[in-house]
């Protein structure tokens, strides 16, 4: 027996590491949630945006939902417990369609789009579309392709009259299949960047046409030929931007349009879209990024914008706000039972809720859904269970030593920072405004800074001085240095301080050397009015008031592919060696083959491209761990690592395909904290 144990131990320690690597890491990584609505009672707190709902009409305990960037989820017990069914698909299933006669047949999209105002890239892209014939257990990729290289599918729908037909849209593309998705026709249209498809609906006649609607567009189109009739005159009252949604009730098609100021109107057509009549005109507090509406089985309107409204009187068109305890921003409305007008499900930016009395009261059924959209994470090395992060529309959430999540501030959460010397000091940003709590981040204790209006992003860089805890740096339109808990701005660096560069800019990454804090590295985004119009990286050798060196030369930042159309390249992260001021790595958030990660051993005077085998995807953050000499990067599709002397990046396959927004290392416990945009916060032992 002793010999067997000895041989087993020898095999474990001397067998090549790769044999045990997957199981080894699976046992050392865990999702920290949140798995339920956070404590604190903030109305804007939630678990993540739900954008599509389908309840099994034969079994109401079985529900599918699509989440924004968090995947396609399934429950078998009415929402008590949820399981993600799309871990291997990038942002899969925020829109989906289910076969009318078989609830196991599902078509889902792949659509990644980060919140406007984030320093993360906001170019929409994806992996196309997928089908499952066994309730999401397995997926097969559909043969959708286009010339833009981004494969972003905003919506996909099965024709309930003929399930052989499948329709999909994405940006300026329309796709049509006549054979259950085995082959597709692709139609490309010439739009400006403010116009794109979002929705698909059937035309209620025998023509086989469909309605396509979205931002600044409303068409009736022939899927066989691609010929269309422009119905934009239905929204002629909106002289600037508008958004259109459609739905059907019996043989009538309804169209809801909202303009830039939120004013809305609903029109209907009884002749398949040839003529239209007004039915309702009013403001539903909608926005150009969020609106939806549905018709109940008895024909009542449910209109969603920031809040949810119900038509209470068909004759006078009276509306009542029935939001109740719903999280703001209504993304989808679903009536699963054609014989029950009172049963309605709603997806919001904070989760999923249902009502059994037509919206008089609501029950949140998000259960243990874990789909929070974290833009970053801040930790305290001395208190491993204390960390905090902003989640966009669900505000700022803090995990405290009691191992519970608390909602500490509402609105649109962004960046966070916990004082490493005194955990009573907690900084956050909200809607681009910097705030401080000196009472451990408790709800109601945050106050604004007088300089906070200079922040261009929801999630700017916040960096504390390594051995002067009262000093910290903020990535604004300039790089700013603060003291006195932020009440005093010591100095700032504008781009026009540098010769022949331009007159404006914004900071995308900041790093300060732990062994010599006079060395500060930072990156500017290249704006259209700059020369050059691509990013620059800088090294300061005597603090923020000292001499600056442009260390951009050697970084291939000006080349891009067709997908690189809406936002320019950004330096997304800077990692420094803790014991060597001149050793650094930078990550690049762009679609440019082979230009992802660079290394310098002399302060950026010369660079080595270490992108190696990385796929052509954006890199969002970068971190170096001295203890195992390993480099980690967070990408749009998960977590990668590069070990010392290796030229092969390893994708950590046990980790879901999701957007990694920020990495933080607890050097005391050797734990890596991973913020994801769609799957909560994770922790991995290194």
**Dominant shape:** globular
Number of helices: 2
Distance between the amino and carboxyl termini: 32 Å
Question: What is the assigned CATH homologous superfamily of the domain at 378-685?
Answer: YVTN repeat-like/Quinoprotein amine dehydrogenase
Q: What is the spatial order of strands in the main beta sheet?
A: 1-56-55-54
Q: Which class of secondary structure composition applies to the elements? A: mainly beta
Q: Which CATH architecture of the domain at 378-685 is right?
A: 7 Propeller
CATH class of the domain at 378-685: Mainly Beta
**What do we call the CATH topology of the domain at 378-685?**
Methylamine Dehydrogenase, Chain H
In short:
The protein is mostly beta strands and 686 residues long. Helices cover 3% and strands 42% of the residues.
List keywords for this structure.
Methylamine Dehydrogenase, Chain H, mainly beta, 2 helices, four-stranded antiparallel beta sheet, 42% strand, 686 residues
List strands and helices in order, with pairings.
Elements (H helix, E strand, L loop, with lengths): L1 H13 L2 H10 L2 E5 L16 E6 L7 E5 L3 E5 L7 E2 L7 E8 L2 E11 L12 E8 L7 E2 L13 E4 L7 E5 L2 E5 L7 E4 L7 E7 L7 E6 L1 E5 L6 E3 L11 E8 L2 E8 L3 E7 L7 E7 L8 E4 L5 E4 L3 E6 L4 E4 L8 E5 L9 E5 L2 E5 L7 E2 L13 E2 L7 E4 L5 E4 L5 E5 L3 E6 L7 E5 L2 E5 L8 E3 L13 E3 L7 E4 L3 E5 L4 E6 L13 E6 L7 E5 L11 E5 L7 E3 L19 E8 L2 E10 L7 E4 L7 E2 L9 E7 L4 E6 L2 E6 L6 E2 L8 E7 L4 E6 L4 E5 L1
Antiparallel strand pairs: 1-56, 2-3, 3-4, 4-5, 6-7, 7-8, 8-9, 10-11, 11-12, 12-13, 14-15, 15-16, 16-17, 18-19, 19-20, 20-21, 22-23, 23-24, 24-25, 26-27, 27-28, 28-29, 30-31, 31-32, 32-33, 34-35, 35-36, 36-37, 38-39, 39-40, 40-41, 42-43, 43-44, 44-45, 46-47, 47-48, 48-49, 50-51, 51-52, 52-53, ...
């Amino acid at each position: 027996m002793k010999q067997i144990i000895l041989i087993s131990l020898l095999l474990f320690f001397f067998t090549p590491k790769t044999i045990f690597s997957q199981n080894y890491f699976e046992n050392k990584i865990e999702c920290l949630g949140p798995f339920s609505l956070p404590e604190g009672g903030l109305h804007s707190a939630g678990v993540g945006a739900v954008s599509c709902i389908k309840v099994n009409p034969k079994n109401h305990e079985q529900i599918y939902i699509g989440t924004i960037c968090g995947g396609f989820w399934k429950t078998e017990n009415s929402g008590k417990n949820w399981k993600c069914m799309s871990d291997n698909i990038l942002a899969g299933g925020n829109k989906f369609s289910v076969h009318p006669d078989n609830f196991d047949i599902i078509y889902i999209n792949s659509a990644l789009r980060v919140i406007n105002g984030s320093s993360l890239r906001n170019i929409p892209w994806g992996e196309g579309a997928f089908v499952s014939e066994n309730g999401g257990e397995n997926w097969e990729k559909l043969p959708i392709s286009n010339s833009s290289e981004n494969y972003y599918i905003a919506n996909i729908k099965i024709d309930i009259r003929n399930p052989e037909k499948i329709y999909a849209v994405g940006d300026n593309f329309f796709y049509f299949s006549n054979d259950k998705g085995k082959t597709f026709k692709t139609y490309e249209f010439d739009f400006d960047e403010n116009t794109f498809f979002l929705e698909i609906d059937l035309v209620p006649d025998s023509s086989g046409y469909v309605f396509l609607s979205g931002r600044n567009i409303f068409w009736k189109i022939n899927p066989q030929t691609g010929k269309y009739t422009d119905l934009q005159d239905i929204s002629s009252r909106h002289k600037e931007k508008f958004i259109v949604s459609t739905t059907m009730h019996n043989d009538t098609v309804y169209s809801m349009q909202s303009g830039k100021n939120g004013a809305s109107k609903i029109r209907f057509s009884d002749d398949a879209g040839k003529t239209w009549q007004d039915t309702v005109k009013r403001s539903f507090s909608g926005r150009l990024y969020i609106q939806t509406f549905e018709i109940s089985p008895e024909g009542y309107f449910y209109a969603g914008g920031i809040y949810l409204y119900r038509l209470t009187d068909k004759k006078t068109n009276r509306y009542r706000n029935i939001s109740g305890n719903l999280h703001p921003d209504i993304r989808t409305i679903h009536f699963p039972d054609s014989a029950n007008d009172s049963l309605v499900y709603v997806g919001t930016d904070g989760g999923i809720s249902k009502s059994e009395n037509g919206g008089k009261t609501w029950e949140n059924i998000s259960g243990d859904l874990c789909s929070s959209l974290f833009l970053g994470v801040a930790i305290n090395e001395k208190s491993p269970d204390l960390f905090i992060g902003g989640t966009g529309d669900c505000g700022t959430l803090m995990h405290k030593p009691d191992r519970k999540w608390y909602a500490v501030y509402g609105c649109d959460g962004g960046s966070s920072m916990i004082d490493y010397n005194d955990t009573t000091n907690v900084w956050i940003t909200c809607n681009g405004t910097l705030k401080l709590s000196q009472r451990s981040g408790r709800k109601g204790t945050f106050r604004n800074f007088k300089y906070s209006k200079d922040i261009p992003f929801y999630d700017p860089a916040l960096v504390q001085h390594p051995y002067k805890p009262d000093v910290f740096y903020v990535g604004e339109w300039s790089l700013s240095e603060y003291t006195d808990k932020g009440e005093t701005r010591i100095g700032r660096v504008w781009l026009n301080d540098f010769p022949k560069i331009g007159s404006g800019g914004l900071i995308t990454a900041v790093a300060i050397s732990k062994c010599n804090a006079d060395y500060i590295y930072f990156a500017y985004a290249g704006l259209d009015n700059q020369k050059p119009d691509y990013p620059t990286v800088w090294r300061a050798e005597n603090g923020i008031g000292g001499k600056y060196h442009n260390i951009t030369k050697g970084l291939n930042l000006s080349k891009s592919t067709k997908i690189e159309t809406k936002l320019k390249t950004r330096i997304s992260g800077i990692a420094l060696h803790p014991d060597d001021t001149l050793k650094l790595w930078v990550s690049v958030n762009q679609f440019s083959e082979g230009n992802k990660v660079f290394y310098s051993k002399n302060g950026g005077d010369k660079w080595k491209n270490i992108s190696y085998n990385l796929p052509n995807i954006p890199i969002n953050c970068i971190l170096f761990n001295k203890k195992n000499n390993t480099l980690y990067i967070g990408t749009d599709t998960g977590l990668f690592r590069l070990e010392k002397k290796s030229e092969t990046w390893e994708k950590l396959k046990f980790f879901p395909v999701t957007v990694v927004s920020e990495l933080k290392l607890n050097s005391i416990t050797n734990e890596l904290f991973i913020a994801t945009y769609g799957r909560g916060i994770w922790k991995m032992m290194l």
